[in-house]
Please model this.
Amino acid sequence: MKKTALVSGITGQDGSYLAELLIEKGYIVHGIIRRSSSFNTFRIDHLYKDKDILNENLFLHYGDLNDSSNLNRMVEKVQPKEIYNLGAQSHVQVSFEVPEYTAEVDAIGTLRFLDAIKDTGLKTKFYQASTSELYGKVKEIPQNEDTPFHPRSPYAAAKLYAYWIVKNYREAYNLFASNGILFNHESERRGKTFVTRKISVGVSKIVLGIEKNISLGNLDAKRDWGYAPEFVEGMWRILQTSDPADFVLATGETHTVREFVEKAFNVLGEEIIWSGEGVSEIGVLKRTGQQVVNVNERYFRPTEVDLLIGDYTKAKQTLGWEPKTKFEDLVSIMVMSDFKKIKQRNNL
Ligand code: NAP
Ligand code: GDD
Model:
């Protein structure tokens, strides 16, 4: 008999890759989508429009992490063997603008899901999308499952509650509930307001002559960037264990935003020269002298996470999980994908 999985956040970057993976593995996937005034299913349209997949292996339901009755009904009706809670207000900077909403969805939304499982008494496995943002002002380098947390945003504080309530329900009610503490993972499906995709789109447009420059915030921030399809495979592995536990998924490498910009231009055969400091820093094209990058304070955060680098030893040893895509390849995959799409769209 086919296994059934329920996925919140199926329309997001990770949800779309996870849905593909689960369908490939023979699961029946039920996804929670939000009502929106415009189409928000573009990342799963290729699955959604395949009529053989839709109605057979993929079922979409309207729902929201803010609506407990909806989550209760969903768990009751679908009776999933596995639940992946990927739905979230996932943008760190936006969380400073909508802190209460972020807490409702990211923190209390997780509690609502766990309560739905507890109240129905369903034997299911629950995956929580926890995050390296929990480490915030980092207490050690690299960060692993035992590193203390120090959240630096309303998003991270909400995810901290979610992390602990997952652990508490595991201990208190014996639920199979696991946290994946995932470091940044990107792809050609990454939302365009996250820095990597903003750069891959911006650099492509500059090289194609469609835009003159991109404005960025903190160029010194360091992140451990991996490739999203590999990370959703890790999520699945976390639920295939016999006992629930928490795992770091990361690449073990860290790079600055500035390096991401440099590599992105390199992919398209250009070189960047930097000058100035702080908000006065600019990047110019070595070949032409054109100013293509500037710093704008509006992208600075009230509190920043300066450096993230993960230690995925536990995942490697217990799950046999390892990242494959290196930083330079990730930049290349993202830039080439955007460059081709933008070129085609503009008949260039
Ligand atoms: P994403 O692309 O922003 O997707 C977020 C998903 O959550 C979307 O499907 C969104 O629906 C849905 N959502 C937002 N508010 C919701 C609500 N109130 N009720 C139900 N669904 C809601 O994020 P992602 O990069 O795929 O990340 C997936 C999860 O992993 C998130 O929980 C994120 O916080 C966490 N995470 C991500 C990373 C990373 O580097 N990508 C690292 C660590 C942890 P719409 O499409 O309708 O907006
Ligand atoms: N978004 C954005 N836009 N970030 C910028 C910019 C810009 O113009 N310029 C510099 N940055 C810096 C941010 O200040 C941050 O230090 C870094 O680039 C990465 O920012 P994001 O790409 O927005 O990602 P994030 O690290 O804050 O959060 C992502 O990763 C987390 C895991 O660590 C999100 O996917 C979270 O949901 C996830 O939990």
Observations:
- The radius of gyration is 20 Å.
- The mean pLDDT is 97.
- Residues 204 and 340 are 9 Å apart (CA to CA).
